[in-house]
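Late entry, written up from scratch paper. The run itself happened at the end of the previous shift, but nothing got recorded in the book at the time, so transcribing now.
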Amino acid sequence: MAPRLPRPHRDDVRIALGGLLGGLLLWGVGLYSRTGDDPMSVVDAHWAVLVPLFVTACCELLRRTRPRTALLIGTAAITADLFTLGNLATVVMFTDLVYAAVLYGTPAFARRLPWITGLLTVVGTVVPYVAWRVPQALLIGAGVGLVSLVPAATGWVVRNHRDTAEAARLRAEQTALLAEMDRSQAVVAERARVARELHDMVANHLSAIAIHSTAALSLDDPKTSKDALAVIRENSVAGLAEMRRLIGILRKGGDDHAPAATPTLDGLPALVESARANGLDVTLDTGVCEVPAPVELAAYRIVQESLTNALKHACPGRITVALAQRDGALDVRVTSPYGHRDGPRAPGSGAGLAGMRERVTLLGGTFEAGPAGALWAVHATLPVTEGDSA
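Output as recorded:
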């Protein structure tokens, strides 16, 4: 089955009809490009003008879908028109075919056609002048250039502008896509950061509340219940303050409810005292000088989360927190008794270790957590040099 020709564009149909009607109007009033005395007018019958006119008009239907085919057939038609009385509409439609061949043709054909038409213009100028040795012969080259070179050059300029505009549009779309990807990644990263902050700030207090509330409910001892309620109240107030601080950070407010300062290593003694109030036997050993703020916050959160995990999972015994600064890095180590228990003293989300690992990875450090003999050890190394902690 033969392939069907593509349907012509409606603008091409309008151009073809306009050229055909214009040519018929010129033919009807007897206005031709040449007279019967012109030696080129081999066929001086008036009806012969209509054949190239109709062929060229049909080629206009293919100017966008089959530009090369339309130009080849149109070239044969304009050549045949040279041997008739000639119709100006046929010449005008042929120039449009040359223009469309450059504009809608393949890139290789569009590059070659201006050179071909330029060569034809040169030949059409030099050969007649050499043959006849009269200045009027130069007009032939001018006519060839006007009919072929000018529309080809115009099509090339328009095509370049169109390709440039298309390339700019594609670059704009790619830039917008990259910006959207960056925005999405920034949103995901910010959500992860907020999730880590929320988990690390609140988990410690809520775990203590859950453990002591269980003790208050299970033991029929007024003093024990009172002590447990005191710890619950203390952790509730501290957790509420931390929540307000986080909300203040998210809102970036500057009013009376402005957030408190970001936790630093100076707050570790208070953090350890809070853990002791929750029933943990904790010792703190720190010999840290000044470190960058991101490293300081990460170290504080690692110790805080480690104490929270010890409160929920550790066996009875001493918990050690040690911080040391050596070889351009801050070394954080937390150990707690490790053994088999019936289950955690308070439920957890399982995101604590992942959050600590993410903090360390963002700073370019190393992180390890796991059993070490009879202990559970959390060990993080955080670079404190300017290039590593930026």
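The longest strand covers residues 318-326.
(Scratch paper discarded after transcription.)
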